[in-house]
Amino acid sequence: MKKLEKPVREPWREIFAGGSAEAENQQFLSLAADMLRMQESNRERATVSHAMRTLHAKIIFGVTNARLIVNSNLPARFNVGYFNAGMILPTVVRLSNASGLVQPDASPDMRGMALRISLPSGSFHDLLATNYPVSHARNARQFVDFARIASGDRATLVQRLTEHFGADETSRMLSNMSKGLRPCASFALERFWSRGAVLWGDAGPVRFNFRPALADSADTSEAVSSADGLTAEIAARLMKADVTYHMALQEFSSETQTPIEDGAVEWMEDVTPSIDVATLVIPKNDRAPIDPEMTGAVDSLAFNPWNAPAEFRPLGNLMRARKIVYAASAKGWQKR
User: Fold this and answer.
1) pLDDT digits over 275-329, tens only?
2) How far is CA 3 from CA 66, 76, 77, 103, in A?
3) CA 276 from centroid of its chain's CA atoms
4) Cα–Cα distance between 252 and 232 in angstroms, integer?
5) What are phi and psi of 91, to 5 degrees?
6) If DSSP codes are grouped into helix, strand and coil, which group holds residue 175?
7) Strand segments (E) across 106-264
8) Model confidence, pTM
């Protein structure tokens, strides 16, 4: 029998807007100013005295006592830095709605998961994910322009988007958004994707995702209908049992099928299958699963994918923009 050879992967690289990292950073500073204006607009619309996060304003649930358990059979190539087979890593978890406005949980929206992993060195590593596999925007400029245009008159939205992006891109982005913005039954039933790539040491670029352990179960919960229904739902679950997710990695294959710079292209499972590497456990608490003090502490944290060891640095235009844009946003809302 012929021995199966390991698939050959193309070399990967990053391409900086403007031709250099310095030129791209100047663009990001301009985009950060645009996002801060939208943050202020959200504050005014919400009629509150303090700035809110530009995105993911409403926390659904936050805990400081979760743990990430690295698989004992971790493939050797993923054994990078602190991420070693069998490690149990204390982890903070923030679950949120994606909107920049605090709105009822029953509203169609995307949902977010943010992790802060405590490292043996005393530092930490942030992992951010959303419950849709790709961004509607290919890059940071497209993301901010779309958000700016979408904040205007809804009656002329399609017309203004088409004038700016063209008919094909407008159709693609609106289709993406309509699939991502949807009701939710439970965070325990949602899968979350990094959407952008990160470096994973010598293994190269990967995207990560978190698959709920209940994904293949008979749980058929209906979408919540109350303003804070998702918080109540996850609290009720944790009164009975842990909430668990399987963490997996998808590896870079080629610029065509697994691009680093285009955040709107999904890395398909038939091209680069998800490989399980760890388990995230949010522990059962049958006494007081919703601790206001703990939730407040988690909500005060400024998560950023660039809070990462060098061997896990984010890759791609959208991810590079987050370093500057998220930091600028946090300076505003953390003053509250």
Assistant:
1) 999 999 999 987 767 888 899 999 999 999 999 999 999 999 999 999 998 888 8
2) 42, 21, 21, 56
3) 18
4) 39
5) -140, 135
6) helix
7) 111-118, 124-130, 192-193, 197-199, 205-212, 243-251
8) 0.91
Who's near 288: CB < 8 A, 6+ residues apart? Answer: none
DSSP state of 13: -
Q: Hunting for tokens 């977010």 — which residue is that?
A: 112
Overall fold of domain 17-333? Catalase HpII,  Chain A, domain 1 (2.40.180)
Cβ neighbours for 37, distance < 8 A, ≥ 6 positions apart? none
268's CB contacts (< 8 A; 6+ apart) are 257
**Position 223, amino acid:** A
Residue 290 and residue 208: Cα distance in Å, rounded? 28
Closest by Cα among 264, 299, 330 to 35: 330
Q: Is the pLDDT of residue 192 over 80?
A: yes
Rg value, the chain, Cα = 20
Task: Determine the Cα–Cα distance for residues 136 and 64; give it in Å rounded to an integer.
Answer: 31
Residue with tokens 């399609």: 158
Query: Do the beta carbons of residue 94 and residue 117 sit within 8 Å?
Result: no
Segments in the chain forming alpha helices (H): 21-46, 140-150, 157-165, 167-180, 229-238, 292-299, 317-333
Q: In angstroms, rounded to a whole number, what is the distance separating the alpha carbons of residues 41 and 58?
A: 16
**The two structure tokens encoding residue 14:** 């990053």
Query: What average pLDDT does range 60-81 have in this prediction?
Result: 97
Distance CA 77, CA 226 (A): 45
Residue type for position 217: S
Closest among 275, 230, 238 to 107, alpha carbons compared: 230
How many Å separate Cα 93 from the centre of its chain? 12
Residue with tokens 């739902």: 233
